[in-house]
Structure prediction request, 909 residues.
Amino acid sequence: MKLFLHITYFEWLSLWRSNTLKTLLLIVLGAGIYGIFFGKFEIDKQQQKIEQVKQHEIQQMDSLMAWVQLDTTSIQNKQKWKQAASPVGVGWNKHFTYFKTHQASDGAGLCLGQRDLYPVYYAFNVSDLARQVNTAELANPTKLLSGNFDLSYVYVFIFPLLLIALFYNLYAGEKEGGTLSILQAQSCSLWFLFLSKGIVRVLIVWGLAAILLTLGFWIQGISIANNLGLFSQWAVIISMYCLIWAAVMACIVWFRLHSALSAMIGLSVWLLCTLVLPAMLNLFVLANETLPNRTEMLHTYREMNGEIWGQPKSYVLKEFYADHPELNDGDTTNFHKWYYASFTLFDKKAVLLDVAFETQVMQRNALIDKWIWLAPAAMVQAQLSELSNTDRASHLQFMKEVRAYHAALKKLYYARIFSNKEFNLQDLQELEQKL
Amino acid sequence: MLRIVIKKEFLTAVRDIRLQISGAVILVLMLTAVLVGKQGQKKIQQQRANAQAEMQEKWLSQGNKHPHSAAHFGQFAFKPKPVLSFLDIGLDNFTGISVFLEAHKQNEVLFSAAQDSNGMSRFGEMTAALVLQFLLPLLIIFLTFNIFSKEREEGTLKLIHAQGLSMRQLFFGKVLGTFLMVLFLFVPVIVLAYCLLDQDSAALDTHLTSKFLWMASSYASYFLILVLLCVLVSAFARSSGLSLLVLLGMWISSCVILPKAAANMADKLYPAPSQFDFRNNIKEQVKNGLDGHNPSDVRLNELKQKVLKEYGVETIEELPINWSGIAMQAGEEYTDQVYDAEFAKIEKIFTKQNNTTEWLGFINPYLAIRNLSMALAGTNFYHHTNFARAAESHRRKFVKTMNKDMEVNHKPAIAYSDYKVGEEMWSSTAEFEYDLPSTSSILSRQWRSITALGLWMLVLLALSTIYSNKIPTI
Prediction:
């Protein structure tokens, strides 16, 4: 043990005194800090969008609450009052546009994942949801393709390079520097010596990783104390990942090759894991398993639309009342009841379609998941984005929340619409509570 | 003498087991990418063409209805999968693929493949471009990092010099020998790719051959640039190790780090508005006029007075034509103006962002070839907006046809539900057809990348000619 400490101490000293190590560490540290700030910048940008729509929503609701209390003797006031009190809206305008926002969870700024591909909020009224969620945030596809330079990127792609740079001449450096024979003359075994040298390097990389992770939490304002679980999960995943790379490099060093050759082999393995294998997997799955044609969904919507408008009102209402007996008052001619009932039928069918499409998509993605172990970099990236709730699954979860919210809002509206009642202040207050 | 040097370099490379292996791996990767990629492109294009035909059929067989109802029923436009996208997938997985065309509004081009995929899509698809832009340069580095330094370290450089061979000759001999080796890998793949272009491909893109040739020659010049650069570094590096370190550092920073950082930086430099602001602006302007002082009811009233005067009547009921048809078309055209203005703003911002990475081609040849290759493959941002514009112009045409018919033939006395037209009307609107941009229009937009590659080549050739005689022999 004493010998081990002795070796590690002097190895550390000699490493630290060389400018190469300092430069390398500084570069990676710089990249990491850039990544942390970049992630923060992106999340802040999304947060701004979220706050903007939330503020807008509250303002609008405040106006409605003021309008519903207006004295309706003047025509102007009457119009405003109607806008506020009529659950069916005025003319073709619906009563209110709600916003459901997708709040970033703690740690989202450390791994932005797929979050930039999806809208961070949906805007909808109580008509059918299906046709209101086919939107996309304005984004430059070139940026989407380049991806995000966040902390997870630094860990997954750049840390292995650091390990390669630290390990490639572990053996060859001594040999080419002429110091190998001196080491062989020592009393301890070469094996032990190189193991100690390797451990020092791993410790250095772990140290840097820990510093960056702490900085990441600190700069992005995520409390470590409250997110101890998150912090330790990140720490475990990253240290394991670094260890795997160290093991790979140790295997390469084992062959006692020329330093340039070791570096090349290390780099080739890196390329294989981070680029070639994932890209190959994508070639076979993404490019060749065609996605379901979602346009069919839009087409089905318009067919349904034609069907709903082409049939007598009772056709829609009868089907609707079968599902919602509590709203059935026997009225099959009222325009508003028919109109809003049609939205519900619409969503009912749309959800079935959506499930069918989603199943197809999942099947295709499952094919990738089945082979993802071939690409450890992609695997770690996927794990980190799962931890940060920035993967596709998290967006699907958000969609579920949107549906539930929409359903809850509808309940209030439909109760009023189907009893020909108007909203009063209490109703609006109740709606405001839900915002 | 030069020929001997070229031959020697080529043979050394071919006989080196390490290069045999990496060369073989690269060749296999490229061949797989090209074969499987072409198959995928064909499949996706087939799917889209079928969907387009199916939707056209649905449009024709929608039955008898009012023309305005038909405009609401709408049409679809599917983006064709560019033929050369199998060589360079570019932005294709991150842009929408189809758009619903209907009355009154411009919809977005939706359903990008990336949205339906898990995080893996960020790792890119294996295409020839990926190998040519990323991996082949690495092979070039491995071929050349010690091409001079090794001879210097082994003392053979002085011997060769003593044979009467000038250093300049030796330098260009080594450059050409290496370049030959690269072409040895590159040409078969390019030839295979060209052979895969069948009749369907030619029908989809009439400029295929010229785009293909431009692409092939751009890559060839990219490789020559890299070979020159690497051999230069090796010629002046103190040791092989240092030369490798410098070259790998350059590779990592220019192929891995800079492209990502550049796109992120550009996004900060030219921030895009949010979807919320964008939609609100449009709504606001449609309501209050482009200048904010021309509200929609005033506009409509002005139009009404004009039409009434034209026909010399007092009221709308007296008009021999359908007022709603005119009003709707006028509204449509006004909205179009607003959309055009707002979309132009966004497009300008994105183009500025993209131009930033194009300018960076002058310091990073990887970015220059990436942008040029994507453009020629038909998978860059320009191609996406070009498609969106074509789809929009198609929408305007058929909506106008519907409005015109309503204006002229739907007499005021007839109720909306009683005026119906049928298949004859539907088939009078042309089917959506989209031609991919021509080679010249692509190249003229890529002048930055082309100039960057040209400049790199010239500067490196000049540096090589000037300094190659000063290469130290020991």
Notes: Strands of chain B lie at 75-78, 98-101.
